[in-house]
Amino acid sequence: MKKFAKEFKDFISRGNVMDMAVGIIIGSAFTAIVNSLVADIINPILGIFGGLDFSGLSVKLRGDSVLTYGNFITAILNFLIMALIVFLIVKALNKAATIGKKKEDGTPAEPTEKECPYCKSMIPIGATKCAHCTSDLS
Predict the structure, then answer these.
(1) CA end-to-end distance (rounded Å), the chain
(2) Which GO terms describe its molecular function (predicted)?
(3) Which residue(s) pair with 60 in the sheet?
(4) Phi/psi at 2 (nearest 5 deg)?
(5) CATH: 1.10.10, 3.50.4, 1.10.287, 1.10.1200. Which one for 2-99?
């Protein structure tokens, strides 16, 4: 039991688990921002063009049951807009990360493949026998 507790403690104290926990907390806060963006800005704009408020769409089933499929459509829109915003933020961060870096000196990288002189297929540079035509290479 002590070994299990130690392994669990080691697992929890790893950096990846802590990073994931921070990411989930920030993601929850970010979700509130995106939900507000969708509910307060995007849906009214969509309402101008389509004249519909998705959250009000529903179908009455038997008895008192109501199928509110408009809420589902709103959730899908929230997800798509959140994915778009996250994509744009990651793209901007990646671009910002490359701005400060120096460009390569322009020299080409060493080749990792060569052409077989017999069958003309590409093979690893260190190959002594072609994998395609089985010719011995010098």
Answers:
(1) 61
(2) mechanosensitive monoatomic ion channel activity
(3) 66
(4) -65, -40
(5) 1.10.1200
